[in-house]
Amino acid sequence: MSENMKDQLTEGSHYKVRSFTAKREVLTSRGYFEGYIRIGNHHAIKIELDESHDEEGTVRIIPYHTIVNIDILEQVEPQEDEKTDKNTYFG
Question: How far apart, in whole angstroms, are the C-alpha atoms of residue 40 and residue 88?
Fold first, then answer.
């Protein structure tokens, strides 16, 4: 894994995310990272909750600005996108 890839959340990885609720309490979400999304002007992460929750399989959206910390439980290697040659040359 390249150095710059180590500093990224990777799809399929298992994380424990602590975030603030509207009442400024800390909510813990354990699950598998499914990607980034946007809600209006805000960015968020998408986590599928694991078996440690009663709502296992539920997808939780966590806005960036509420995240307190993220623990890496299991890091998955990022999948390299296959680069296709999109350049066309007519000679």
Answer: 37
Q: What is the CATH number of the domain that holds 43?
A: 2.30.30.520
Domain assignment present for residue 36? The answer is yes
- Bridge partners (DSSP) of residue 63 are 44
18-50 burial: b if 16+ Cβ within 10 Å, else e: ebeeeeeeeeebbbbbbeeeeeeeeebbbbebb
Q: How many domains does the chain have?
A: 1
How far, in Å, CA of 48 to CA of 33, rounded? 7
Residue 88 lies in a domain: no
> Rounded to two decimals, what is the model's pTM?
0.77
Q: What is the pLDDT of residues 49-82, one digit of tens each?
A: 999 999 989 999 999 999 999 999 999 988 766 5
Which string of DSSP letters, residue by residue, matches 12-70?
A: T-EEEEEEE-TTS-EEEEEEEEEEEEEETTEEEEEEEE-TTSTTTT-EEEEEGGGEEEE
